[in-house]
Amino acid sequence: MGSLNSLYGNGKYFAKAIGQDESQMAAVEKQDLLARLLGRLAHEIRNPLSSLDIHVQLLEEDLAALGPETRKPLNPRLEIIHGELHRLESIVERFLRLAGPSALELEPVKIPNCRARLRFAARRSLHAANRIITQLKTICHPSPPIPSG
After folding, report:
1. Is pTM, for the whole model, over 0.85?
2. Dihedral angle at the C-alpha atoms of 26, 27, 29, 32, nearest 10 degrees?
3. Is the pLDDT of residue 81 over 90?
């Protein structure tokens, strides 16, 4: 949304064009940012969890080579480790569900209203783009100084 904000002057015109107010657009942007952060956090947690799970399995294989009297007291501890790893994995899954796209809230719309809003947004966009182009031209190719007298 950053590029839209600069093009539409903090999003006010664009928000009106699509039938939202600025606070709705800001809330959507914050929700999107939070979803991306949750997704990254979940990813960073999931990788070490997977590694731990693999190493616990390898440890169990190594312990299987030992005698039953040595393995028996370790089994409850290994079960606790597995249980905690799976619990953490389920927490990560919930994070990912939160970070994922939410259900769309569809509602009927009147096509002529949408067309009018799109035309309004397109006109605003065109006017804003023309202003930016004009400003860029004056910055990149300034007019030569007018000779005095």
Report:
1. no
2. 180
3. yes
